[in-house]
Amino acid sequence: xxxxxxxxxxxxxxxxxxxxxxxxxxxxxxxxxxxxxxxxxxxxxxxxxxxxxxxxxxxxxxxxxxxxxxxxxxxxxxxxxxxxxxxxxxxxxxxxxxxxxxxxxxxxxxxxxxxxx
Length: 117
Fold this sequence. Notes:
CATH architecture: Orthogonal Bundle
Domain HTH arsR-type: 1-95
Structural class: mainly alpha
Strand order of the largest sheet: 1-3-2
Number of domains: 1
Organism: Phreatobacter oligotrophus
Number of strands: 3
InterPro entries: ArsR-like_HTH, HTH_ArsR_DNA-bd_dom, Metal_resp_trans_reg, WH-like_DNA-bd_sf, WH_DNA-bd_sf
Low-confidence stretches: none
Shape: elongated
Distance between the termini: 37 Å
Keywords: DNA-binding, Transcription, Transcription regulation
Order of helices and strands: HHEHHEEHH
CATH class: Mainly Alpha
Largest sheet: 3 strands, antiparallel
CATH topology: Arc Repressor Mutant, subunit A
Radius of gyration: 16 Å
Strand content: 5-15%
Number of helices: 6
GO molecular function: DNA binding; DNA-binding transcription factor activity
């Protein structure tokens, strides 16, 4: 990932509905969600949701797959991983001990466990 790709990805996420959409799609990996389900879950009108999904798609953060008359959206976790690695690639100016808490937090199994009911 280069700087322009990172900027496009971060800009796409720098809006409340798009951030909520991306987080919702991450929570529904690997099945994904139909566009209508995303809109209903977030209480966003269909045309507005389509515009948000288009921005996320152009940034490479979501992928769309047609299944009959339905379009199913999935988070592109490889792209998200690339963006995250771009952000921390030169971790703390050559002082990795400063990034150790971040790496430890990301390495906890609980970060990927479903939320408690």
